[in-house]
């Protein structure tokens, strides 16, 4: 592929307008997520408690913005001020939950539709991460941790509001914390945030911004599709294991085990040398 | 009744000063609510944990303002800045919980006292809903959903903070979400918010503002009193059932049932026609 | 001791720079707290879930600032904007959790180290309470309750975020509310806040500000050390019992008991007289 044409495509991806098509794709996947989270009783629940169903769905749709706003002292409800977006979201919810004979749901679950929606959602996610990092960088130009947190939350807000989302539906699952077993989305948003910060704040990445952005979009879409189509779920696992082995106790713990209790003195003197 | 005199009364109701009498009525009912929520062990609890008791009571009293502020990025503690109001609230709490031989509680529960307090609280509630809608409309002139949410929360904040209120007292009841089974107050505040928005933003309601306001006050007081005196609890139920039957699956589900599995093809083609 | 020299010392304590030594002491104790809260499985947990471990530790370290900011509509994440402080906190966490053969943890738990850290943390705590009261007083010059709340939260934030801290680690203990059984820290921060307010807003305390501040520091350090070394846990208990007996039902309840059901009429008339 011609590098210039490639850069052109990248520039166009950066400037993509999100409303309404990408919003619809995002909403479809959110509605499917809520419906699957409800399990077998989803249809009954949606008939009995339409308000709780709609509210928890809205929380999922606008999770990233709401949580990020809450943490940055901006109005939590602000993402709801865009009335056309609200109407689109509500229509999608209605179609997925209430169409006769569940046609809406069946279409949404139809593999090609799901694949297209997922790809679009990943493009949207990348934009959200980038917006989050940029916004945080404007507020706190030197607070890298805040940029990472906001970028990650904007990208995968729904993961972090899952507890509240379920609580709205009267279900409480305290062990389902995202922090305990971060999903692939959380990890990839975290990595994307770090890359955006490196691109913005340092000279380490010499590629033009559009290319960096496009690269992350491709990464997001590629792994999403391979997750749906091939069942590969988390390419970060080997890196994590390596990191844990190197820094979070793995090596030291094994060494302590090898030397055992009998040779504890030797082990201690060795370790003491290393900590100096 | 003379229409002009009626309008005069309405105008006076709009301008009613709330502090201190309406505040006292509100506080009395909040204290009774906390005490009843504590059940049989209320007195013992208030002796052992006065601080938790007082804090959860304060949360109930100022719930609407606090939650609305939290969602609009205004200081959650701001409702506590009015020291005279705080002192009145604390005194009411003391009288209901700690007077000798429980005289305060018995007076508060005495039917005529309760009726008067309830009527006053409903007038107060109407003012809060109106203030909430107005405030949200100032911040987001086109965000109707935000106005409705803030109006409803200001009107029936205590319903939405119940989980936190109980948590302060060390009790966790995740299934008691207001969204799952919205109380009559939530529904009526929602309807009142919508009417206020129609009055403010559209030309649909031609009556003068004072009359609209007064009408809602009468509606609130009337249903509150009929709930206390006659045991009518929720005049919205028939409308809800109708709504559910029309829009949230009722009809389609019944049709799908009637046509059954045997004639599923016919049903599908029929539905397909209707969705066009 | 020479009074002037004493005032000199007091003035120096007021102006003490907190970063980095006091921060380190604070972080060490926070890390020990998280580790002890994890119980026997602490080491395993820190190996399996380093992110949840780190996040819940960070919440403990910055609890006071975050909660106070959340309640005053300031950015909850703002305490994380200070990157050097973050790095120090992360290093301390790493040393306590991951050093080979647990040397970091063992050093942290070594009594003399713990005593020094505790004393430093109490000096830090006093500064935080004072800063909290001052900050709230700037925002709401007449809202004494808000000043007390913010002062107490800044001083003992970790007590109030315990539920969230545990939730991040996937554990939910709704009965562990600080309000139900306030710890000594909460009570002493509350008292310190009230003294600071009296010093700032009234003429009741004629001593110079530095002396008042120093007095509170001494009080904090003294009781912390006596708690570690002598096992005295809560010098407020007798005062609380007195308060409860006087104001929160103690006397009235006993009297009602003494007069009993048989003489209830007499009791009632007596009480009625007293309430006049």
Automatic annotation (TrEMBL), chains A, B, C:
Q: How does it sit in the membrane?
A: Multi-pass membrane protein
Q: Which UniProt keywords apply?
A: Ion channel, Ion transport, Membrane, Potassium, Potassium channel, Potassium transport, Transmembrane, Transmembrane helix, Transport
Which domain of life does the UniProt lineage start with?
Eukaryota
Q: Which residues cross the membrane?
A: 54-73, 85-105, 179-198, 210-230
Q: What is its main location?
A: membrane
Q: Where in the cell is it found?
A: Endomembrane system
User: Is the keyword Repeat assigned to this protein?
Assistant: no
- Glycosyltransferase: is it a keyword of this entry? no
Q: Which family does it belong to?
A: Belongs to the TMEM38 family.
Name of this protein: Trimeric intracellular cation channel type B-A
